[in-house]
């Protein structure tokens, strides 16, 4: 047997996958997506000091909307395909299973309007900040996916985190602008089995019966356009305090059971620089800090006495991104970007994060824009997240790491992004 039996029935069940409800297709930087829309994506999201489009500006630094040359409305969609493999072993027994999440659609919309007052701009973003879908079948050869109580059995999870971000930007001087605005999050979170509640006597219940929860927060930014071809920007996204996720499930006898789980999105601080001093070339560099360790459900650690997951023990992390743009002519632009970030999962917690390995510490982006006419621009981007592996012991409730066990996850991600921007 994979799990040791103890006196209390609910202690028969061992937590081996603590993040089944977080993005198994997350694109690095923990739960947060690194970019929004094809223009921002092709620069690896490094636009904190570079106002290239409305969507990217609203995503990473709303103050930069003051630097856009005209009012614009941008639409973008990412098509994400993840290849996820999960393997585990206990003594001589070992096996590997591929997830079947299918393609994921990630839409984004950004609108910026230059008012009649040249010092005032307003914007509205409808942005996908995180999302996932994973779908592991049960297995009799892969120990971690054997049916309960010996394993977790079939593992399904899906979530969507979208934000509505109205902002106002004020140009205080010719070269300095500030911005502020609320963030409203709409989130859904489903998991089967529902590992972050106490198990029934026959295993963990299903968490498919859920509803949308709302969150709130504030973001702000500053943008400085220098005289020597250098621009600088900084922004802060405050924590997103989200209502507890509510689940309608059932107990071992099939009677109704209601449960909740508390998860918030972390504070993010961004600093950026952009250099325009070479003809037709723009170079950007961004630094970001993600405060996961203080976010409910992410920074919390371990299980309670009933076997429910309190949190996954994520650490706060740093990330760097750089991008370069080259304008070939008046209609055609090419871009490339590279991102590098720490994993929020420490080695000691690798066994608790097998359903969301988040080991994509590097990513390469390329993209281009083509002007269809004076008002409309077509934008394309592609991102490749090389395969990385995270490995550690299987974690068990009450007894910690299971001696002689191992579990490893491997994730490769391809993302194609396309969209259109209309200026007026």
Task: Summarize it.
By secondary structure, this protein is mostly beta strands. It has helices at 37-42, 54-60, and strands spanning 72-90, 93-98, 104-114, 120-136, 155-171, 176-192, 213-225, 230-237, 241-242, 245-250, 256-261, 268-275, 281-290, 301-303, 309-312, 317-327, 332-341, 362-371, 376-392, 395-396, 400-401, 405-423.
How is this structure best described in words?
3% of the residues lie in helices and 51% in strands. The protein is mostly beta strands. The chain has a single domain (9-423), classed as Outer membrane protein transport protein (OMPP1/FadL/TodX) (Porin, Beta Barrel). The strands form 4 sheets. A 14-stranded antiparallel β-barrel has the order 1-3-4-5-6-7-8-12-13-16-17-18-19-22. Strands 10-11 form a two-stranded antiparallel sheet. The longest helix is centred in the N-terminal third of the chain and has 7 residues, at 54-60. The protein is elongated and about 65 Å long. The chain starts with 36 loop residues before the first helix and ends with a strand.
């Amino acid at each position: 047997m994979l799990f040791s039996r103890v006196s209390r029935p609910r202690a028969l069940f061992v937590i081996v996958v603590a993040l089944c409800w977080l993005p198994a297709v997350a694109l690095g930087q923990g739960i947060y997506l690194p970019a929004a829309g094809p223009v921002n994506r092709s620069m690896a999201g490094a636009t904190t000091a570079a106002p290239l489009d409305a969507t990217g500006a609203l995503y990473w630094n709303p103050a930069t909307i003051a630097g856009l040359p005209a009012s614009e409305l941008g639409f973008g969609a990412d098509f994400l395909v993840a290849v996820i493999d999960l393997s585990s072993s206990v003594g001589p027994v070992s096996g590997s299973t591929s997830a079947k999440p299918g393609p994921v659609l990630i839409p984004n919309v950004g609108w910026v309007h230059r008012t009649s007052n040249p010092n005032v701009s307003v914007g509205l973003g409808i942005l996908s900040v995180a999302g996932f879908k994973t779908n592991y079948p049960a297995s009799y050869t892969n120990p971690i996916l054997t049916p309960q109580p010996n394993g977790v059995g079939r593992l399904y999870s899906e979530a969507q985190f979208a934000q509505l971000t109205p902002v106002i930007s004020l140009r205080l001087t010719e070269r300095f602008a500030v911005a502020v605005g609320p963030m409203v999050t709409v989130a859904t979170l489903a998991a089967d089995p529902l590992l972050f509640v106490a198990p029934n006597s026959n295993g963990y219940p299903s968490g498919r019966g859920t509803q949308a929860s709302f969150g709130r927060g504030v973001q702000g930014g500053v943008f400085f356009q220098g005289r020597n071809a250098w621009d600088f920007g900084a922004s802060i996204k405050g924590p997103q305090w989200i209502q507890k996720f509510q689940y309608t499930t059932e107990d071992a006898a099939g009677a109704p059971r209601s449960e909740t789980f508390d998860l918030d999105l972390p504070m993010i601080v961004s600093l950026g620089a952009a250099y325009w001093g070479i003809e037709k070339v723009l170079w950007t560099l961004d630094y970001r800090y993600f405060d996961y360790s203080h976010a409910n459900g992410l920074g919390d650690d371990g299980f309670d006495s009933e076997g429910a997951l309190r949190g996954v023990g994520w650490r706060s992390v740093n990330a760097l991104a750089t991008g370069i743009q080259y304008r070939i002519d008046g209609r055609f632009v090419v871009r490339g970007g590279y991102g590098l970030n720490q994993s929020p999962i420490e080695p000691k917690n690798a066994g608790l994060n097998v359903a969301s390995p988040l080991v994509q510490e590097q990513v390469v982006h390329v993209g281009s824009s083509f002007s269809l006419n004076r008002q409309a621009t077509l934008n394309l981007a592609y991102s490749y997240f090389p395969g990385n592996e995270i490995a550690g012991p299987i974690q068990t409730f009450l007894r910690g790491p299971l001696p002689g066990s191992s579990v490893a996850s491997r994730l490769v991600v391809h993302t194609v992004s396309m969209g259109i921007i209309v200026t007026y």
